[in-house]
Amino acid sequence: MLAPVQRALVRQIRATFNDQSRGERPVPASDDALFPPGSVIRRVHGDVTTMMVGGIAALLTQMLHPGALAGVWDHSDVHADMLGRLRRTARFIATTTYAQRDSALQAIAKVKAIHDQVSGTLPGGGGGYRATDPWLLAWVHVAGAINFLDGWRRYAEPAMSSTDQDRYFAESGDIAELLDADPVPRTRAEAERLIREFRPELSADERTRTFRDLVLNVPARSLVEVPVQAMLMNAAVDLLPEFAREMHGLRRPTLGPLVRRGTYGMAATIRWAFAGDRYRKST
């Protein structure tokens, strides 16, 4: 039985990630998921704090590619509903990691159908873009995966072995392949090499800066969440790859060590709150 404080914290977190107006509930873990109990991806994706920090860093990194930014900018309501986008991304990750296999494959098919409708022209005569472009999908995948993994390593498992890091890329690569990304890195070394290949294609302009500010200044749902959200945003900026932070015109938080200690403490508190909960079991 969870204590009252634990139950209150769990309710608050679930309200953040699940749109209760649409009847959304947490995605329960299935033994018949795409990834079995004990897989590294279930371990990494099961931590609330590291996924929030890694997810914000991932989104900021992904949007440095003009094609990725244009697809979101031109074909979504991100300007008015950044929280909704973050929720949908979190739900997709939860579903493809933990849900019953058929539900996971349905979620992937739904995203692919949406991608089929997303195309356009880059500003300034930069040519066209398509969300179905395997190369562009490869960027979105690798920029996300490396930030999610590094968020886990920083705030949950600093001594994570290189073997388990490679297993994470191998497992998360299965989802990327089902989404038709190509190439798909299967080790950390391959991921870092692919990011270096993409670097000449990345850029930052006024739209990038506007998107950055939308992400980092998304309104908190309540006054209680304001300091928590500020810490998470600072932790995400601190986590960003150096090149991404520089391109966004950001600096490491002045109180970086304090941000890390605070975020680490928050992560420990949330794990305590969810102790014994039947969702997100990795083993």
Quaternary class: single chain
Shape, principal axes of CA atoms: globular
**Straight-line distance between termini:** 21 Å
Main sheet specs: 2 strands, antiparallel
The portion of residues assigned to helices is: 55-70%
How many domains? The number is: 1
- Count of helical regions: 13
H-E string = HHHHHHEEHHHHHHH
Poorly predicted regions are 278-283
Strand percentage: under 5%
How many distinct beta strands? Answer: 2
Overall SS class: mainly alpha
What's the layout of helices and strands?
Blueprint: H1 4-17, H2 40-45, H3 48-62, H4 66-75, H5 82-98, H6 101-116, E1 119-121, E2 128-130, H7 134-155, H8 162-178, H9 188-198, H10 206-216, H11 225-239, H12 242-247, H13 256-273
Description:
The protein is mainly alpha-helical and 283 residues long. It has one domain. 63% of the residues lie in helices and 2% in strands. Strands 1-2 form a two-stranded antiparallel ribbon. Helix 3 crosses helix 11, helix 7 (134-155) runs antiparallel to helix 8 (162-178) and helix 11 crosses helix 13.
Give a brief rundown of this model.
The protein is an all-alpha fold. The protein has helices at residues 4-17, 40-45, 48-62, 66-75, 82-98, 101-116, 134-155, 162-178, 188-198, 206-216, 225-239, 242-247, 256-273, and strands at residues 119-121, 128-130.
Distinctive features:
283 residues, mainly alpha, two-stranded antiparallel sheet, 13 helices, 63% helix, 2% strand, disordered C terminus
